[in-house]
Amino acid sequence: MENDRFKIILMLQYFLLCVDLFMNSFSELIRSANLIMLVLFVVQDICIIFAIIVLFLTFFNTYIFRAGLVVILVKKFKTTIVISFLYLAFCIALHVHGMQLRWNEPTIHVTASSFWVLFGIQRVSAVFYYYFYKRTCIVLGDPRFYEYSKWIHNEFIKRR
User: Fold this and answer.
1) What is the pTM of this model?
2) For residue range 48-62, what is the model confidence (pLDDT) as tens digits?
């Protein structure tokens, strides 16, 4: 991938991760304003969806994908793909459940154990999501994914 294009895509991916991190860190501080919190949750979920889309667009841009060796990409980045979709599901579940519990009384402290279990799972999955997504972004910047190389040829022969 061209160096400038890689930098732009990497900056976009980091920006989306930072927005998500910011939302996770500070969304609880404004829990008294339901509508604002709902908008922030929607923005967070959209940023996660965009991050996943950008990741797949980066996959589609590789020489490996264009050569028809999609299995190699899926195998190499399976953990990131699964964690990204699980994290999105946990975020949506937490946002929906939290808004249901707080909608009528936004200033109450939620004591439902289901919320706190889901909150813990979402926050732990966030750490894994940030790590694997960032690692995948950096690995996909390797030029060998975007040009013909001996290891791609060997993989192609193995798959035949």
Assistant:
1) 0.88
2) 999 999 999 998 988
